[in-house]
Amino acid sequence: MANTNNRVSVIIPCFNCRRTLRLAIDSLRNQSVPVLEIIIVDDGLSPAVEDIEGVKIIRISENKGVAFARNLGVKQAEGEIIVFVDADVVLDKNFIRNILFAYGPETSGVGGRLDDDGSYLIGRWRNIYLRQNFGDSVWERLPMLSGAVCSYRREVLIAAGGFDEGFLTNAEDVEIGIRLNQQSRILKYTPLAKARHLRRDSFPSLVKNMFKWYYWGYKAQLKHNLISRGKAGNLLKSLILECRSDLLDDILQRRNPVFAVLTCLNYFIKFVSFLLAVG
Question: Which domains does the chain show, CATH number per domain?
Fold first, then answer.
């Protein structure tokens, strides 16, 4: 395990997540390796998050967005390693231990494995096509870390200037991942740091969030000149081929026509989001 002296600050950006917040905090309190502090950044909620014993709460009078909340938490954190956990995520008891174990001397950040609730259809589909993890193997270098369960060295975040606060709801994790990779920073993934997503999407919320994920993800790439409207044709061809392959799996292997409909919709939204993002 890296020499972190257990100086871990956990930051939970919180907006409209009171239903699951206590469960997230309980999972942090039950960790096999204790953390230095738990910080909730109450991002303009009304009513505000109530005081919780042993938890530091930073209250913002108005909603400033997830990137602002993350940055504010980092400024007031004392730990050498900053772990970000979404308020609707429950951690395995060894999550912090396995995150710390994955750090090497040159590692700037480590992400964990987040799985969606597989007890309902949309959750099962998301675990295949919109999963927030990189699978069952360790990855030594990644383009980004999923913001819901990730960690960084505090000094790295500060040196990078923090998260881009122009990304209010999505893709702040994508954008900072691009910047850190441009600086040759090492971002790592360990599947041993497990977490469970308590979110349960309805069809309307799934569609809404797909648009936000893709649109802001493309905006992050556009900011760094990684995409352009001139690549729309190539992207369309690639998406058609990918969609065809996934549809065959949905129909022939999974024998699930609802999956097939969601998959088609997913690729359609991905392309439309690209066109909207690049203008």
Answer: 8-197 (3.90.550.10), 203-278 (no CATH)
Q: How far is CA 145 from CA 109, 187, 242, 246, in A?
A: 8, 7, 23, 25
Helix, strand, or coil (residue 251): helix
Angstrom CA distances, 260 to 202, 245, 253, 257, stand at 17, 11, 11, 5
The predicted model scores a pTM of: 0.93
The string of pLDDT tens digits covering residues 207-232 is 999 999 999 999 999 999 999 999 99
Nearest C-alpha neighbor of 225 from the set 268, 179, 269: 179
Crossing angle of the two packed helices 121-129 and 203-223, in degrees rounded to 10: 20
Residue 120 phi, psi (nearest 5)? -135, 165
DSSP code per residue over 103-133: --TTEEEEEEEEE--TTSHHHHHHHHHS-BS
